[in-house]
Amino acid sequence: MGTPTAETQKALSGLEAGMAWSLDELKRLVRIPGVSFDGFDAGILRDSASATAEHMYACGLKNVEVIQFGDVHPYVFAEWMEHPDLPTVLLYAHHDVQPPGSEAGWLSKPFDPVERNGRLFGRGTADDKVGIIAHTAAVAAYLKTIGRLPVNVKILIEGEEETGSAHLAEFVRRHKEKLRADCMILTDCSNIDTGIPSITTSLRGIVSVDVELKALPRPVHSGFWGGVVPDPAVALSKLLSKVTDDDGRILIPGILDDVRPLSAGEIAEYSSLDLERIVRAGTGLPDHLPLLGRPEDLARRLWREPSLSVLALQSGTRQMVANIIQHAAWARVSIRIVPDMRPDRVQKALGDFLKAQCPPGFEVEITPDAAADWWTVQNPSDPVYEIAARALEKGYGQKARFIGCGASIPFVQPLTSELGGIPAVLLGVEDPYSNPHSDNESLHLGDFRKILQSQVHMLGALAGYRRA
Length: 468
Ligand SMILES: [Zn+2]
What we know:
- The protein is of the alpha+beta class.
- 35% of the residues lie in helices and 22% in strands.
- A hairpin with a 2-residue loop joins strand 1 and strand 2.
């Protein structure tokens, strides 16, 4: 694995000495409930940005700025650029969080971080306030021990990731020079399992459409008219059942035509993962309910094939059930898309299919909703991936795995392409038990230490990086 340089060694001891402080700083950030969704107080995100900026200043970073841009939730930027001849690495994380959801599901208050069973619970502990600390703790470890970083660093902390980074591409266009870097490290992804460091090399995109079926001008008595009047709720259920087969495969003609097959390397890498165990652990799916797809296909189906979900389904309400035939039924249907599918084409194909398969006579309305592109590593042989894998192996004491991710991070594509196609390394410290976006979100505290150590190794090794 190679031994760390004396400087990295000093930084590692500095990191250890500052570990309790880093954890306290994480907790301080978690206590600020900066939710970027509509209907939440935008002022709290400004507080969260200032607290992040203060933290960066305390770590020894320079040119710390809270950047307000229109009424977009503020970004925080900082840098340390003292080596004209060495590469520059752009570090990304986000300071906004998801809403807490229903507090009834939480065992402790969402914005009051609590340590339990070796984990830190609280909204944002894993997604993504730990991402901020992973970068800054490594920076502080160097600056506080040897007074300099091994490489130039820029840090960008976004404030609207959880609502889809709608303004990020424009932000990057406006601040291209400020953000220019040789490579980028993002800490907003997951490890395949607790203690197993992972580099995410592909993300799925997503498209969705709303479908509404109408039959009558208003709901009517199911006793008087049932038996002769068609029911939109039944019709919508039948329609939705036509989009996938019993195994969950999408039946829209031609939908799989653009799907890029896995490379031989990916097949080999993924075949050694025990994905069934990870899926069951991560979702709570009981053993008596079989997974969709054969065991050998799980990686492909999770990361590199499209999957369809009905996100919401409504006809009447559960609170006010009456003996009536509903006049309309509505659903939002999404497809996670993969390389090389085209979001616009898939969205249209989904809408057209629903329209064409609708039982005759119903009025059907299709409304396109979100569309976000997939992402994949452009050049897997860029040396930054080898550097990252070795740094993670040193930090975790476990070989790094290259994995896919079935979720979407819409900003990765625009961010990297605006910056000239620089390579992006997607890391994270979430594990299958972190429950991000849901109740009882948590961070494994052992992995907290390990990602911080990895980042110290990473900054050290990046000094020798040259883009392929
Ligand atoms: Zn996130």
